[in-house]
Design brief:
Structural class: alpha+beta
Number of strands: 6
Radius of gyration: 33 Å
Distance between the termini: 115 Å
Order of helices and strands: HHHEEEEEE
Length: about 160
């Protein structure tokens, strides 16, 4: 037991140490808050510099064209399975920053994403320089045409 005449404990040193620890803890919490806010902002808007994974897109596109070819030549019982596979691969391509170029007939010819492999004569001026038929779909990764779609173009004869 301590006697009442003994030295009193130094409470100011303990309070000063507690104040420093609280100050340090406040700095750590503030730093973590800023880091979390940066991560949330980055997740909301991905950087524009993020490029598509072109080799992966090329491989997925090869599988896509194989599935599309199989869907055309498959039996009636197997055709829906190949169509579902093709559609799933197209979703993967789009999700990875690419796009399948398969313009519908009548769409305007775009030399950036299409290659005219044949010309079909027409008399209608509205059909001039439009896609008559898609022979092979193409692939675009971001703004870059990786493989142009092979199309037949309608031209006034």
């Amino acid at each position: 037991m301590t006697s009442p005449e003994g030295p009193a404990p130094d409470r100011t040193a303990g309070l000063e140490q507690l104040r420093e620890q609280l100050s340090d803890l406040a700095l750590v919490v503030a730093r973590q808050t800023r880091t979390i806010e940066r991560l949330v902002d980055a997740a909301k808007s991905p950087p524009a510099t993020a490029a598509a994974d072109v080799p992966l897109l090329v491989d997925l596109f090869a599988l896509y064209t194989d599935a599309a070819t199989c869907a055309v030549s498959a039996s009636e019982a197997d055709r829906p399975a190949f169509e579902l596979l093709r559609a799933g691969l197209e979703r993967l391509i789009v999700g990875r920053g690419g796009a399948v170029v398969a313009p519908p007939p009548g769409a305007d010819f775009d030399a950036r994403t299409m290659e005219a492999v044949d010309v079909r004569p027409v008399t209608d001026t509205a059909a001039d320089r439009t896609v008559a038929e898609v022979l092979r779909p193409g692939l675009v990764a971001g703004e870059r045409s990786v493989r142009p779609a092979a199309v037949v173009v309608s031209r006034i004869s």
